[in-house]
Specification:
Layout: H1 2-18, E1 24-33, E2 36-38, H2 44-54, E3 58-69, E4 74-86, H3 91-99, E5 120-124, H4 127-131, H5 135-144
Antiparallel strand pairs: 1-2, 1-3, 3-4, 4-5
Helix pairs in contact: 2-3
Amino acid sequence: RAFVERIAREKAEEVAQRAPGAWVLGADTVVVLGEEVLGKPRDEEEAASMLRRLSGRVHKVLTAFSLLNLAEGRSFQGVEETKVKFIPLQEADIRWYVSTGEPLGKAGAYAIQGAGGSFIEWIKGSYTNVVGLPVAQILGPLREIGIWRP
């Protein structure tokens, strides 16, 4: 949890240094399987390995966000946690999915909003969190600073 919070804060701070008067949003998402943190796979082999480990199991998706304005000295942080269960995957499913290229660049090697969503048995929590940005949790701070006006 602390790891993903730190990365989100560092992303926001890096951009905010170049635009100190602006509100900047940084976010980071990781998949946690037991005690193992699954980030973005480096290659197709690592993506396939992650999918094999997720097959038929429950995991957590953690997304941290950091919304800050350096000039105003204000910031908001949060972490959302969602539980996801994969169906049991066959090796052919994994090979096909990896061949699409979709798992690369995705925490845990899947995109719930894409073809990877077909591997989800159930989800408990925020769908947008699993996509990569917990929209409902961010709306409060955006309203408070006057950016969100429906």
